[in-house]
TrEMBL record:
Pfam families reported in the protein's UniProt record: Mal_decarbox_Al (PF16957)
Protein name per its UniProtKB record: Malonate decarboxylase subunit alpha
Top-level division of the source organism's lineage: Bacteria
PANTHER family on file: ACETATE COA-TRANSFERASE YDIF (PTHR43293), MALONATE DECARBOXYLASE ALPHA SUBUNIT (PTHR43293:SF2)
InterPro entries membership: MadA (IPR005777), NagB/RpiA_transferase-like (IPR037171)
Length: 549
């Protein structure tokens, strides 16, 4: 028997989109929204309760659109569910204060971490979840499919084709999630031109373009001035190079943002050269174009770099080093945050980063009391992906079992000085993230990197080779032995530490033939921004705030 079903529409999303577009037809010219009409258009296109994904990543901010969104009438546009990889600007949270938005799913909130924590506590904002970048991008195609996507690009032509230049970053992922599920895509651009240098996103994916009243905000987030690298960070960098990179033959890697990893980059042409390691380590990178990587590139250490995003001032240098970077026909960098995160998750041997807190077993988080910072891409790259099947020397070197089905492991390194600023210990008995879980009504504690994934911990005291043990008690002893004078470090037993060193579970600088007195700034290939410019042959053009001349 054939059941006759009541007729239904299978294109309700498309029909809803067409209706919205018709409502703004009198305000727009083709695909172009007049700059002064952006608020009026947003009030008609965005409906109460919509999921709105707003581009606000580590560096590139759709700042014109975010400033326009906070100006809409909350009687017309309210209860929005915002989806943002990075909450970085004041208006990102102003929209909650104004009642325009109600709920947020995010990955990172560094600059606004204190404010967002207070707003959660005050009930002004509902936190969906803290995500890794790849996790959040993935959910855009599953259960967080956006109704509206607000993105930024360098240029557009009059057909809506977009040129994103060096800072493509997450734009294609956001646009695709909306465009292919009948959402509405609005792109702010710095200028509208007749011909683009290259097409990064086709106009058929874009509904509207609007020329911003000023260029989108772009922060040189990954630039570290070598003047501020300390002797302690140089000592840690020497230990990483000798006790991890050389020991395990690390050739493909990701460096997190920070002075400790900048120190490693600047030691390769000096200390690394002394050790005869060129061609043996640090060849293939997934990394933003860090200026501190310039000396290593110029001296032949680096073979390739794939970037999450661009970096202000590095445009001409990247264009002149096409053999190293991924570039388009126009010569400018092609970055992609999603693909770089996946490369960092599956294709590299090592991730190295830092943290604000680590417990006695190696669990760590940047979410602390009163500060909901999130963790960006660190958990993507800072874990051992079970789906990996290709073998490299470093990955294979992590194998500790003789089982016939034994596999290698990705190196996940946490570098931290034992105390933060204001004498706050990094090593704690219990992560603040456990309390934040209750405060923010999260289902699980926001741990950045779980202990089971951490293979090495490095402090100014030494290295703990955590991958060599499965014993929680032994892990605690190993971490305590390098935790300095923190409460955990005071548990350290000198005799037990001697045994750990003899067994190769812990290494102090002396065990690696590193003299602490030689760890000083004389080893840095460049000691300031001016010297980085010289290394680049004048191609690196640092932002004014980094100039010391």
């Amino acid at each position: 028997m054939v059941l006759i079903q009541q007729q239904r529409s299978w294109s309700t999303r498309l029909e809803g989109k067409k209706k919205r577009l018709e409502e703004v037809a009198h305000l727009v010219s083709g695909v172009t929204i007049p700059t002064e009409k952006i608020v009026d258009v947003l009030e008609l296109l965005i409906k109460p309760g919509d999921r709105v994904v707003l581009e606000g990543n580590n560096q590139k901010q759709a700042s014109f659109l975010s400033q326009a969104l906070v100006k809409v009438d909350p009687d017309r546009v309210h209860d929005l569910h915002m989806i943002m990889s990075s909450v970085s600007r004041p208006e990102h949270l102003d929209i909650f204060e104004e009642g325009i938005a109600k709920k947020i799913d995010l990955s990172f909130a560094g600059p606004q971490s204190l404010r967002i924590a207070q707003m959660i506590e005050d009930g002004r904002l509902i936190l969906g979840d803290l995500h890794t970048y790849v996790e959040l991008y993935g959910r855009l195609f599953i259960d967080l499919i956006p109704n509206i996507a607000l993105v930024a690009a360098d240029k557009a032509d009059r057909f809506g084709n977009l040129y994103t230049g060096p800072n493509t970053e997450e734009t294609p992922t956001i646009v695709e999630a909306a465009a292919f599920r009948d959402g509405i895509v609005i792109a702010q651009v710095n200028e509208i031109v007749d011909e683009l240098p290259r097409v990064d996103i086709p106009g058929s994916w874009v509904d509207f373009i609007v020329e911003a009243d000023e260029p989108y905000e772009l922060e040189p987030l990954f630039t570290r001035d070598p003047r501020h690298i300390t002797d302690i960070q140089i000592l840690q960098a020497m230990m990483c190079i000798r006790g991890i990179y050389e020991k395990h033959g690390v050739q493909s890697l990701n460096h997190g943002i920070g002075f400790n990893t900048a120190a490693i980059e600047l030691l390769l042409p000096s200390y690394g050269e002394q050790l005869g390691l060129k061609g043996k380590i640090c060849k293939n990178w997934v990394l933003n174009p860090h200026p501190t990587l310039i000396p290593a590139i110029e001296t032949g250490w680096v073979e390739s770099v794939h970037c999450f995003g661009g970096e202000l001032g590095m445009e001409k240098y990247v264009q002149a080093r096409r053999d190293i970077f991924f570039t388009g026909k126009d010569g400018s960098l092609r970055s992609n945050r999603t693909l770089a995160q996946l490369a960092g998750q599956y294709a590299v041997d090592l991730f190295i980063g830092s943290t604000l807190q680590m417990d006695s077993y190696g669990n760590s988080s940047t979410v602390t009391k009163g500060r909901v910072a999130g963790y960006g891409g660190a958990p993507n790259m800072g874990h051992d992906p079970g789906g990996r099947r290709h073998s490299t020397e470093a990955w294979y070197n992590m194998m500790t079992s003789q089982d016939e089905l034994a596999r290698g492991k990705k190196l996940v390194v946490q570098v931290a000085e034992t105390f933060q600023d204001a004498n706050t210990p990094v090593f704690v008995e219990r992560l603040d993230a456990i309390d934040v879980k209750k405060q923010a009504n999260l289902a699980v504690a926001p741990v950045m990197i779980y202990a089971e994934d951490v293979t090495h911990v490095v402090t100014e005291e030494g290295i703990a080779y955590l991958y060599k043990t499965d014993s929680p008690a032994e892990r605690r002893e190993m971490i305590a032995s390098i935790a300095g004078v923190t409460p955990l470090g005071m548990e350290n037993d000198v005799k037990r530490t001697k045994l750990l060193r003899e067994r190769g579970l812990v290494a102090m600088p002396e065990d690696l033939n590193i003299l602490r007195g030689e760890a000083n700034r004389s080893l840095l290939a460049a000691k300031n921004i001016d010297e980085l410019v010289q290394w680049s042959g004048g191609l690196y053009e640092p932002p004014s705030k980094f100039k010391s001349w």
